[in-house]
Amino acid sequence: MPQSGSTVSQRESSSFLPVTQPASAPASPVGSPVAQLLSTPSNITLDPNWQAIKSTVRERNAAMFNNDLMADIYFIVGSPGHIQRIPSHKYILATGSSVFYAMFYGGLADTKEEIEVPDVEPTAFLTLLRYLYCDEIQLEADTVLATLYVAKKYIVPHLARACVNYLETSLTAKNACLLLSQSRLFEEPELMQRCWEVIDAQAEIALHSDGFVDIDSDTLQSVLGRETINCKETILWEAAMNWASAECNRREIEPTPSNKRQVLDSALYLLRLPAMSLEEFANGPAQMGMLTLEETVDLFLHYTASNKPRLTYPTKPRVGLKPQTCHRFQSCAYRSNQWRYRGRCDSIQFSVDRRVFIVGFGLYGSSTGAADYNVKIELKRLGRILAENNTKFFSDGSSNTFHVYFAHPVQVDPELFYTASAILDGAELSYFGQEGLSEINAGCVTFQFQCSSESTNGTGVQGGQIPELIFYGPTSEDQ
């Protein structure tokens, strides 16, 4: 994390550029020394008494940031076509980085006046210098990965930690696979774990994202071999085919079935084709030309024959994620004419202390015998609908809860309040919860509840409808 007094600015974006891709940067200042000084952020140093108006060491150091005045080393940063010449001061760099200290003051100190840094983007290098000079961290989505790279290159752990924190807060299903690939490169296990949580819970969105086809082959294998990834095997097959097509294009070869099989190599055998239904296999992989005739016949025999052949593909379905449930009432009851719907909204607000993914709600049904219900469920944050579903469920007349799900799990971040709502249409008299709690520990997650102004049918913290929140979240095994 940044040291005391530092600031972090962020601009929201869901995409990240690989660190090897240089960002465009302004050309290096040219011309006379005065013109160069005027072009720097610290042109106040043109005043011969500039030190007098800087009351702190931090302010005086900040005046030297990207400033030719007293510069004793220059960095030629960036790849050809994107090079920037950046002035600096050895003393300041050496006090902030052990790598710079060894470079300038160690036993094999470099005496050159210019140092070439072709593997770093100029914008990222300037972000590093701004931190070393000014104790400020300014991160943006399109350069944060490059900044993480340079922070690790020069061993500046506080800046690296700020980059990781930024990436964690910016993490979504659409960028999780690409970030996983980068976090493996940077050896950031905590960020990797956060990526896996998102990919496991929102696998279908993650695998269909644009960035998935850009991951490296090792990351692809880790995804296809993942036991807890929560989606149908057909989704993984489609994702692997999309990646193979993109890889063929990167290698400038035609994406034919044989070429796609070649670029997938051993990753193909991580797909659990026997875990598909016979219909899914017959209408998909069996007709795409990716499998040999022998493999296709053996797989059909696996589905239909009593004496099954030995397969080169794993036959055991993936475990996936186990849904967890937060029960917010200690008991339920029914009383004649006391709990009716009539199209009104039952709603409750909640927050969590750890990131989870809401799968759906448990609802009470009829207290007067079996009945069908139409229901609309919603999950909202500050009035914005994050997910909704219009569906039906059958109530058998018991006090059991009946689960209703969203199309995809919805990410819920800690320390923010969300609103869960349900509007039911069906048998009016139903069971309802009572003895509700405002704080509940469900596994490793603490839920807090408060009443919602949107609730027009009587549901609140103490009693009512929406007795359960169904979610994917951390378990004791993850600790």
Automatic annotation (TrEMBL):
PROSITE patterns: BTB (PS50097). Its main location: cytoplasm. This is BTB/POZ domain-containing protein 3 isoform X4. One of its GO terms (biological process) is neurogenesis. GO terms for cellular component: cytosol. CDD domains: BACK_BTBD3_like, BTB_POZ_BTBD3_6. Signal peptide: none annotated. Residues 1-18 have a biased composition (Polar residues). Keywords: Cytoplasm. The lineage of its organism: Eukaryota, Metazoa, Ecdysozoa, Arthropoda, Hexapoda. It comes from the Eukaryota. It comes from Sipha flava. Residues 1-34 are annotated as: Disordered. Pfam families: BACK, BTB, PHR. It is found in: Cytoplasm. Residues 22-34 have a biased composition (Low complexity). Residues 71-141 form the BTB domain.
